[in-house]
């Protein structure tokens, strides 16, 4: 079955530091890949997505590239802010008869001023 | 445009009690989902619906029932609550499956004592 593995947290950074959160996946076929973000006390929001190999998703300074050869979708940001403190979830959908998203366990990011 | 709303936000139940969680969306989405979020487990799909009058089991359906009598509403029921059902419950909806973004509600924090 499908699975998503993301780096365990928590991750603590200083403001303006570079961020990488690793995500690798196992899936049949050609899945779509997503990063969701959950701010404290809120539901999940889509941060970015990529639907085919070599696609780069980007939003709010965050980027992730769909790498089929390494089955990876690592999240990066060049300069984090305190407001980026949240839990980040990598997820996939195979888009076929499987209607659900498969989520990683989440990575807590804390950015200190 | 409220998006996805959930009622109630918090609830404490005693073992054996029953309750219903209500999810409502105003985006005319066909697909609706119920997830539970537990520490270190990510999100796990309980039940989902691909349209009015339809429901299907997800990964962890035992102990829960659902109904989708109206397109905009998706109800999650616990007939006899157990401490293992202590969790945060999220409802989500999407226009279509797979490639389409899922929109999440703010969550319901349920404690079963």
Write the layout of secondary structure elements.
The complex is a heterodimer of chains A (113) and B (113).
Chain A: E1 3-6, E2 11-14, E3 19-21, E4 23-26, E5 32-38, E6 44-50, E7 56-59, E8 62-65, E9 75-77, E10 86-93, E11 102-103, E12 107-112
Chain B: E1 4-7, E2 10-13, E3 19-25, E4 31-38, E5 42-49, E6 56-57, E7 65-67, E8 73-78, E9 87-94, E10 103-104, E11 108-112
Parallel strand pairs in B: 2-11
Antiparallel strand pairs in B: 1-3, 3-8, 4-5, 4-9, 5-6, 7-8, 9-10, 9-11
Describe the overall structure.
The complex is a heterodimer of chains A (113) and B (113). Chain A has 113 residues and is mainly beta. Chain A contains no helices and 12 strands. In chain A, strand 10 and strand 11 form a beta hairpin. Chain A is globular. The mean pLDDT of chain A is 92. The mean pLDDT of chain B is 93. The radius of gyration of chain B is 13 Å and the shape is globular. In chain B, strands 2, 4, 5, 6, 9, 10 and 11 form a 7-stranded mixed sheet that branches. In chain B, strands 1-3-8-7 form a 4-stranded antiparallel sheet, with no helix packed on it. Chain B is an all-beta fold and 113 residues long. The termini of chain B are far apart. Classes of the chains: A mainly beta (113), B mainly beta (113). Chains A and B meet through strand 6 of A and strand 5 of B.
In short:
The complex is a heterodimer of chains A (113) and B (113). Chain A is mainly beta and 113 residues long. Helix content of chain A is 0%, strand content 50%.
What would you report as the Rg of chain B, rounded to the nearest angstrom? 13 Å
- State the distance separating the first and last CA atoms of chain A: 41 Å
Q: Give the helix/strand class of chain B.
A: mainly beta
Largest sheet of chain B: 7 strands, mixed
Profile the largest sheet of chain A: 6 strands, mixed
The residue fraction in helices of chain B comes out at under 10%
What is the overall shape of chain B? globular
**Could you tell me the mean pLDDT of chain A?**
92
Backbone CA Rg of chain A? 14 Å
- Calculate the mean pLDDT score of chain B and round it: 93
Helix-strand string of chain B: EEEEEEEEEEE
Helix content of chain A: under 10%
SSE run of chain A: EEEEEEEEEEEE
């Amino acid at each position: 079955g499908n699975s998503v593995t993301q780096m365990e947290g928590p991750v603590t950074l200083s403001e303006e530091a570079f961020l990488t959160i690793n995500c690798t996946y196992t899936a049949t076929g050609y899945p779509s890949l997503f990063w969701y973000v959950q701010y404290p006390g809120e539901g999940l929001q889509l941060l970015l997505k990529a639907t085919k190999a070599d696609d780069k998703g980007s939003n709010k300074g965050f980027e992730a590239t769909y790498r089929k050869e390494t089955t990876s979708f690592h999240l990066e940001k060049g300069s984090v802010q305190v407001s980026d403190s949240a839990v980040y979830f990598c997820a996939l959908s195979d888009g076929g008869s499987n209607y659900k998203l498969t989520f990683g366990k989440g990575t807590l990011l804390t950015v200190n001023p | 445009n409220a998006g996805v709303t959930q009622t109630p936000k918090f609830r404490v139940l005693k073992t054996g009690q029953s309750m219903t969680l209500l999810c409502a969306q105003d985006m005319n989405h066909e697909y609706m989902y119920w997830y539970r979020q537990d520490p270190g487990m990510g999100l796990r799909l309980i039940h989902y619906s691909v349209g009015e009058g339809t429901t299907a089991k997800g990964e962890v359906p035992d102990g829960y029932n659902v109904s989708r009598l109206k397109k905009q509403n998706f109800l999650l029921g616990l007939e006899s609550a157990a401490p293992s059902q202590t969790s945060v419950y999220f409802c989500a909806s999407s226009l279509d499956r797979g490639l389409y973004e899922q929109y999440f509600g703010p969550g319901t924090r349920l404690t079963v004592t």
